[in-house]
Amino acid sequence: MSIPSILSILSILSIQCAMLAAGEPPAASEKPAPPPGWLSIDWPVRRTVELKEASPECMVAFAHDGLAAVDGRDIRVIAPNGQPTDFLIKELSAQSASVVFNASPGPGTYRVYYGNLDPALKPPMGGLVRVENSQWKPDGGYRGIIYHTRGPRGRQELRSFDDTKKHFDELARLTVKTEENKNPVATREVFYTELKDSFEEYGLIDADVLIPENATWVFGEGDLRFTNTLRVLAVDGQPVLQGWFEALSGGIISPRGQGKIALVKGPHRLRYYASGPFELKIAKEGPKLEFEGIGGSWCHFPKAVESATGELEIIPGKTLAQVCLDLAAAANAREFTRAKTIQRFVQDVIGDADPAARDQALRALDELESAAYRFNWMTEAKNPARTGYADEPVELPLKHMGGNRVFVQNSFGIEGITVAGGVAYMGEPFRLGPEPWPITSPPAIYDGVFYGGSKDCNLYACDLVRRRVLWRFLSGGPIYGGPVVYRERFGRSDRVYFCSLDGKLYCLDRKQGRMLWNYPTRDWIEGAPAIDAGRVFIASNDAALYCIDAELGVLRWQHQCDGPLASTPVVSDGTVFIGSGAGTMFAVEASSGKTRWQVGGNGPIVGAAASPGRVVFTSADGKLHSLNAADGKPHWAAADLAGPVKAPPIIVGSVAFAGTLTGEVKGVDLQAGTVAWSDTVRFGKDIVKPLAFMDGKLYVPAAGRGNGGYTVFGK
After folding, report:
1. Burial grade of 45 (CB within 10 A; 0-12, 13-18, 19 or more)
2. In a 3-state reduction of DSSP, which class is residue 11?
3. Do 311 and 342 belong together in one domain?
4. Residues 208, 301: contact at Cβ < 8 Å?
5. Can you give the pTM of this predicted structure?
6. Are residues 390 and 282 in the same domain?
7. pLDDT, tens only, 514-557
8. Which of 102, 176, 465, 684 has its CA 20 to 30 A from that of 110?
């Protein structure tokens, strides 16, 4: 379904929603009339804040349930006079927000707007949003000054708090002195929602924090990988951290980078001097120090009065047509997660009042789901069907563009890569626990959550915004195949599917990690599940291909092959493709399990990819094959990749890409059947999982003891 056709469907739906939400038209006093650029298009939802007494500032916390952008770019506050007012985003997560706003317009009804998908909106710098020409700044929180000066850099010059304070006081004096010459030493004032940033030269931060209880508190620098960096901290004027700290392996906080102080419950003032990248953390003293970043929850604003917000409102009128259902804008901005959240919210508003409108909303949600997979590489082999096919043009040759090293324990320590929103994910998104168990599957990225299988037999769900583990599920064996999130067409619930070396297919509730069902096979499963049209396909080392009902977890059919199956099935145009260890490629009818064709005589098959009318597969003897998807006839003699192969190929336009165990990556012209491009990975050596391609860039993951990572190629 195309975007224009979706919009034609949704124009009807938007009228239905507006009729349900509108009631009486808004009074003239309720209609914001902000300066140009503040509300470029109407916002879909808002919450009211009743400020009963005069106060210079007001602080409100509310649940946005995923309707607001993760960087707060779409949040706006409108004063009782209908004009915008300044605000600072105190804290923002994937589900909630807290803001402090300028309440100088006086008591009355303020409104907090969010949910705008307009791609032209820009993220606020440091969380601060000011009305044009305003100089407002909140009293409290985290604010700093960046000084542009080289000054002293030796460790002997600023070792103590007193020396550092004198130096920064002199910088402040020079700043005032040079303002007349319009060449200040201080480059800019900055605001923070958490004490984490980077200074090219020197920075001074004043932070008002609220300590929750009487205790001894330990402060530490969260990342000591950087050498020759200044770290001087005073709490209420008492030095806690002093000196320059060196790099340490593993990024673990060292006693040299810690300081402690006894503090009473209540507000306290931090003064932090730093150079280079910094991340200030805090922990309550105890047998085990559990550090956390000093984020917005620790902020204190002494002059701000706290107020509650009203219920979430859908703004009447044309709002839903312009914003909530503007899927074209959402697709252009690739705001799929938030667009789907807004769509579900509208769907809940509709309820069962109009079944036709409800079905239209579900179709729109399905299209958003498809678009998210089309514009990203969010799971192993790109999509739930595991086609490994990107309908993008690619021009050879490609050039090395960079990459990243990822620590691995062994050749199976880290294996796969996914790319979502232009960000590559490989291995742990952050430290998942005290033990260095590696992520051994290509991760799946879905609605801001990372799903990855580990050698410790757990499937992890991690919030990428708040950087915390949401849940973990313990299976009966290590997990090597990539998990996948799948929602039935016209369905309401998302589920996570994955396979384990214990020989089982697992189905979990995505939100809580609760097992809904599992299906056992007779041997281990090394590959990943493929899903299409409500059916889950898995290949087991017991030489059988299974078709399981995605909803019920019951067997629909089973197809016995001629050898063990260690790869991931591929589903395309109603056909399931799977290769065996005996060297036979099978094409099986997805609905019935009947054999459409089979072609043998190859080396052990390690994986496949499919594009319209074509299936491509690699064999362990270093060959890449291309067959007609309808009858299995070869397009040309197998292309020689000149090295042993363990990774499945991918298809991008008219080129198939595959890697070898010697670290070489090849591009095969699918028209000629010849290797048209070749290069070598810069990180790792053993290419054992599928590559990824997004926005003209080829991502090649490779393992190797202590030297894994991914290499990027492009134009």
Report:
1. buried
2. helix
3. yes
4. yes
5. 0.69
6. no
7. 999 999 999 999 999 999 999 999 999 999 999 999 999 999 99
8. 465
